[in-house]
Design brief:
Shape: elongated
Number of helices: 3
Distance between the termini: 46 Å
Number of domains: 1
Helix content: 10-25%
Oligomer: single chain
Structural class: alpha+beta
């Protein structure tokens, strides 16, 4: 739960000064940009950035289903001339999916497809952002990162 709270907070702290606003529509915490027609949610998932679609750690409820269906149905059901007039009425939902297994940190920003149950059933678009090892890479402390040889450090000790 703490990872979720911190994830939502980090997104808001980064985006709200740039004109985004917070939303709690349907009891779903999200951050919205009305000009772009984008609603961004945070979700801890089983595994991100793999060929398999991520699954939410906690099941999705009616509020999430409605937000996603409303935004995604507009994205695909409108004809071009109407799309310009109706833009922004229901933002397209994107989800920041984050996973860690203690060895890797993975994050992707994905656009979920409408779903009926309590779990994402697929994504129309997936953007992989981070897929990094959490454990340090073995190496020598006295070597530069470029491997060109030992690095000498001068340490000064002085009384105050």
């Amino acid at each position: 739960m703490l990872a979720y709270i911190k994830g939502v907070r980090a997104i808001r702290m980064e985006l709200m000064p740039k004109g985004w606003r917070l939303s709690r529509t349907g009891n779903v915490e999200s951050t919205v940009n009305d000009q772009l027609g984008i609603q961004l949610c945070f979700q801890n998932v089983d595994v991100a950035c793999t060929e398999r679609h991520p699954k939410a750690i906690s099941g999705k409820g009616a509020g999430s289903r409605k937000l996603i269906q409303d935004g995604q149905s507009e994205l695909f059901d409108r004809e071009a001339p109407e799309a310009v007039d109706a833009f922004g009425s229901a933002p397209t939902v994107w989800v920041v999916c984050v996973s860690t297994d203690g060895k890797k940190l993975r994050a992707e920003v994905s656009c979920p497809e409408a779903f009926a149950g309590n779990q994402f059933e697929g994504f129309s678009k997936r953007i992989w952002v981070v897929d990094e090892d959490l454990e340090p890479t073995p190496g020598h402390i006295d070597q530069r990162d470029d491997g060109s040889g030992p690095v000498e450090h001068e340490v000064r000790i002085a009384k105050k």
